[in-house]
Predict the 3D structure of the following.
Amino acid sequence: MSQNDAHLLIVDDDERIRKLIQQFLSRNGFWCTSARDAEHARRLLEGLDFDLIVLDVMMPGDDGITFTKELRKSRDTPILLLTAKGESSDRISGLEAGADDYLPKPFEPKELLLRINAILRRVPATEEVVETPKVLTLGDIRYDIERGEMWQGEDLIRLTATEVALMRIFSSQPGEPVSRSKLVEDLGRDKGQAQERAVDVQITRLRRKIEADPKQPRYLQTVRGAGYMLAPD
């Protein structure tokens, strides 16, 4: 997806910051709508579809993490959280709740732009229709590689953009371990231990959707000293 096609929702209770973000992203080719809090965002989401949500964690009423959990029950729209500088607990909680990435405040506008573009690049294209799709079997879970879809029986399992990206990486080389640093690189993120830890959180979330017992994974395995590996049936 190109940024000229993307409609972003910016949710922040600070009017000054909200307007600055909207103006900056609009100048860089995005179509932007803003909301002052979670309740305002809910009303907008009732009538509009967005390609990505930029969501502040610290807000009156429902905070960003609570709202992320709510959104993930019905939507797979990518979410970028804006967190307080130094509050690593907020970042981890946000990723566990279903956010795709986070950016600590204060931040450089250019870094916000880079993070948004990196997330949008991970959003799967939907134009392909394949007559004989390749499918991986993970117990009672089926993963359609070409469509980037995961099914359990007749039920479609909702995957976030980051989870789809991870499954594409793993399914391209089943049975082969992928290092945490390589995952960070393929996801388009900055290098460093913080991002590797963020990947660990995303893996934990993905296991909950794949594994009968996420604490003893059968299909998305940890390979000591080598990273993670998808081991389909």
Summary: The CA atoms of residues 34 and 70 lie 19 Å apart.
